Amino acid sequence: MSLMLSQGETIAAIATAIVPAQGSVGIVRLSGATAIVIAKTLFQAPGAQPWESHRILYGHIVDPATEEIVDEALLLLMYAPRSYTREDVVEFHCHGGIMAVQQVLCCCLAQGQN
User: Fold this and answer.
1) d(CA 112, CA 3)
2) What does the alpha-carbon distance between residue 92 and residue 71 come to, in Å, rounded to a whole number?
3) What are the φ/ψ torsions at residue 10 (nearest 5 degrees)?
């Protein structure tokens, strides 16, 4: 499933298979002009973890509307042009299963509505 966000040319999609009771990691990928901005809005990394290209950060995905933690996750950053789309790419590596992955995707899409 891939949906276009309303801000510019950023695309958000579930990048892993979603099969009940299978898969321990789910990935939601953003690619495009606002991918990093959306990630910085949703992802809280404790400490002084650097937001550098080709780094993996540890933290939590937080829904800005409710300020509730959606999931504990890893965030992979790939700044343009050093990504497979040649655009800024962000991947949220969250817990597998449909619930967590859909919640993370919904948070990403909500940011595209702002």
Assistant:
1) 10
2) 10
3) -90, 135
Low-confidence ranges of the chain (pLDDT < 70): 1-8, 19-23, 113-114
Beta carbons of 3 and 11 less than 8 angstroms apart: yes
Identify the helix (H) or strand (E) that includes residue 35. helix 35-42
**63-79 burial, b if ≥16 CB within 10 A, otherwise e?**
eeeeeeebbebbbbbbb
CB atoms within 10 A of CB 24: 7
pTM, whole model, 2 decimals?
A: 0.86
* Burial (CB count <10 Å: 0-12, 13-18, 19+), residue 58: middle
Identify the pLDDT of residue 4: 46
Work out the number of other CB atoms within 10 angstroms of the CB of residue 54: 10
pLDDT digits (tens, 9 = 90+) for 34-53: 999 999 999 999 999 999 99
